[in-house]
Amino acid sequence: MDMSHGSSDGSTTAASCQISMLWNWYTIDFCFLSEQAHIRSVGAFVGAIVGVVVIVIALEALRRLSRDYDRQIKRSFHASLAQIQSDSSIKDELPAVPLFRPTFSQHLVRSIFYTIQFGTAYILMLLGMTYNGYILFAIFFGGFVGYLLCARDTATDHGDNSAAGRGECCV
């Protein structure tokens, strides 16, 4: 009985996906998440690695956009509050520390940012669970480059010395 899985008529069979739950360095016939993402050449593998790096950098950029949006809606609130407080006729009616709460539409935008971030991070986690060394290093490298390019704002002093401005909880 021939167990070679070969074909006697000269035709070739499609290569199957190599999937391993152990650390591996597969490059050819490797599948990401599904059979449709089957890597059949070195060029396709390099493209996939570059794609993973770009996705992680894009995730960090999206996180930055989300933080910038949060800052923008807080600035807008404080600007409108300052304008209201300048009106002396209603100044005494305002609470001492007005509570900032995003409007429904602002929170909807924030929720969309969060959902895209969560979904992207989940897909990256699934890619990491292929235990492919190249993919894992691409995720780490993309995280490094993305943070380097997009997260400098987290250590920036915005001139707000309040507990809320410093990012502290429970003002």
UniProtKB/TrEMBL annotation:
GO terms for molecular function: copper ion transmembrane transporter activity. GO terms for cellular component: membrane. The keyword Membrane applies. It is a multi-pass membrane protein. It comes from the Eukaryota. It is found in: Membrane. Keywords: Copper, Copper transport, Ion transport, Membrane, Transmembrane, Transmembrane helix, Transport. The chain crosses the membrane at residues 42-62, 108-127, 133-150. Belongs to the copper transporter (Ctr) (TC 1.A.56) family. SLC31A subfamily. PANTHER family: COPPER TRANSPORT PROTEIN CTR3, SOLUTE CARRIER FAMILY 31 COPPER TRANSPORTERS. This is Copper transport protein. It comes from Microbotryum lychnidis-dioicae (strain p1A1 Lamole / MvSl-1064).
